[in-house]
Amino acid sequence: MLIEFELIEKAKNGDDGAFNQVVQAYRKRILGTIARLIGKPEDVEDVGQEVFLRLYFSLDQLRAAELFEPWLYRLTVNAAYDYLRRQKRRHEHRMSDLSEQQVMMADASAGGKQQVEEDRRTKIREMVHSLLEKVSEEDRILLMMKEVEGLSLKELEKIYKVNENALKVRLFRARQRVLKAFESQE
Amino acid sequence: MERMDQDGIPGMNDDKLDALFGRYREACPDREASAGFMPHLWEQIEARRSAVSSSWFRLWAQVWLVATLAVAIVIGGILIPRFENPPAYQASYVDVLTAADSANDAVALPVGETE
């Protein structure tokens, strides 16, 4: 936990100052998770705002402060999932839809070491995103939470409210699909 | 030792995928929010709060309107007609006394006698 349970209790009881501190403690981690889940840097803050907005208006439903992190991750997963579904409905690929990073890359005229490193990162990101396109949004997020965010099955169980065995099966299948896609790309 | 996937696809293994996910994690590090993140968040919270309170106000206003109409119907339909009924005693107290006196006089005087 990044914060004391007491702070969560205060925020839960309507203390806006405490809520502010909670957001400040978690926003970096949550924005990072969202960035990895949705893969569009320019939309990360909007999804992050939605997560904390939902947190503010649902905090009174949190049963115990100990459950705060799984609760926050659940809100994050749901907001990311909603975003990906909305994106799927729009099938537009205009210049304005290019990510900030892509635009910056396109504009960048200078080469150099930094650029080479950024190219490498972009390649990795693109590769992972194209692999994860082979699975559904639900499985994509589940796989990311497990493999990239490093959450344990116990933690995922709390977030998804599904038993461990069902999660294992789902993860295994998703991973198999990604492995096959990876093999075919190589 | 490299693990083979369930289908035994040659050249592909779980370790490579794990390594790719690890590199992806490094390529997408946690990120700082922009300076406008918190102010914008509070703006949205305030906007939703006022939307919620105005919807509560609207609901209360509707409840009060319905209650007022119900009271008006009760007053107009039941109470007003009741007050409009003729009163039990239409004559004044003096009229009643006068009428009682003249009746007594009639009894006191024997039939055929006159003063």
Describe what you observe in this structure:
The complex is a heterodimer of chains A (186) and B (115). Chain A is an all-alpha fold and 186 residues long. Chain A has a domain of 91 residues: Rna Polymerase Sigma Factor, Chain: A (Orthogonal Bundle), CATH 1.10.1740. Chain A is 75% helix and 0% strand. Chain A contains 9 helices and no strands. The longest helix of chain A has 23 residues. Chain A is globular. The model of chain A has no long low-confidence stretch (mean pLDDT 85). Chain B is rod-shaped, with a radius of gyration of 47 Å. The N and C termini of chain B lie far apart (147 Å). Classes of the chains: A mainly alpha (186), B mainly alpha (115). At the A-B interface, helix 2, helix 3, helix 6 and helix 9 of A face helix 1 and helix 2 of B.
Descriptive terms for the model:
heterodimer; A: 186 residues; mainly alpha; B: 115 residues; 3 helices; 0% strand
Shape call of chain A: globular
Q: How is the biggest beta sheet of chain B arranged?
A: none
Radius of gyration of chain A: 18 Å
Biggest beta sheet summary of chain A: none
Structural class of chain A: mainly alpha
Look at the structure and name the CATH superfamily of the domain at 1-91 in chain A. Answer: RNA polymerase sigma factor, region 2, helix turn helix motif
What name is given to the CATH topology of the domain at 1-91 in chain A? Rna Polymerase Sigma Factor, Chain: A
Tell me the helix content of chain A.
over 70%
- Helical fraction of chain B: 55-70%
Report the strand count of chain B: 0
Order of helices and strands of chain B: HHH
Q: H/E order of the elements of chain A? A: HHHHHHHHH
How many distinct beta strands of chain A? Answer: 0
In DSSP terms (H or I, runs of 4 or more residues), the helix count of chain A works out at: 9
Layout of SSEs?
The complex is a heterodimer of chains A (186) and B (115).
Chain A: H1 5-12, H2 16-38, H3 44-58, H4 68-89, H5 100-107, H6 112-132, H7 137-148, H8 153-160, H9 164-185
Chain B: H1 14-27, H2 37-84, H3 93-108
